Amino acid sequence: MEIEYVLEEKGGPVLALAIHDGHQIAPQLSPIMSLSESERLREEDPYTGMLTDLDTNRLIIKTSRFQVDLNRPIQDSVYLRPDQAWGLNVWKQPPTKTILAQLKQSYHYIQKVLSGMIEKSIQQNGYFIIYDIHSYNAKRSGPDETVDTYANPEINIGTINNKGIWRPLIDSFVKYLKEHNINENQIDVRENVKFSGGYLSKWVTSKYGQKGCVLSIEFRKDFMNEWTGTPNLDHIESLKKLLRSSVSYIKNSYQSHYGSK
Fold first, then answer.
1. What's the pLDDT tens digit per position in 202-250?
2. What is the rounded CA–CA span in Å between residue 132 and residue 118?
3. Number of folded domains in the chain?
4. From which residue to which does any coiled coil extend (predicted)?
5. Please, are residues 59 and 132 in contact by the beta-carbon 8 Å criterion?
6. Which domain range does residue 203 map to?
7. Could you tell me if 21 and 62 are in contact, meaning their C-beta atoms sit under 8 angstroms apart?
């Protein structure tokens, strides 16, 4: 029941997370899970792990959110009811109490891993910045639906859980993204429109919010066919370059607004 993950520590204050990138399910769970792989993939965030390749610290979760969701409070981290999972019936039969206990133990273990990385950054750099990378569906009605771009920004930055002291840093990050283009078009970047930040950012900022900021970066799934899962690798590479170029900018912004350690 352990959560599979990839951890790279390269130093510096920036940590890139892709906690919903994963698709793996523990062998013990597969027989009691009712969802097909394609149904799971639709609500996962495939290819977000690729977007963490920023020459920074990074943590990629390879286990599916349908096994345990690190962006939900512990009591909701296993989807036991359809209302927790976009109306989907996840299980043929509910996981046993023993299985649930093991899943929650794995949830706490990853929290410890993340805490260790954050605390190390605070010790070494005096602060941390998390790029909490996600993606979201904008064609809920079907693959031929026209995207409502007014309601669905190309990039949504969720920031609501951060302490007020990080407002200048957040503004600098949003401004940086808005000044760049993807596929020769200015990027539609908005804050707290589609999502405002999940439980993981709330948990991190409740513990460490005076020392760091969580930028929950939600990409509309323009970089893939959200119904088939087929990626547009050129688009993914463009997004990765954008994020990579932002790292030095955000560190310089921190020094400008908050000074050295």
1. 999 999 999 999 999 999 999 999 999 999 999 999 999 999 999 999 9
2. 13
3. 1
4. none
5. no
6. 5-258
7. yes
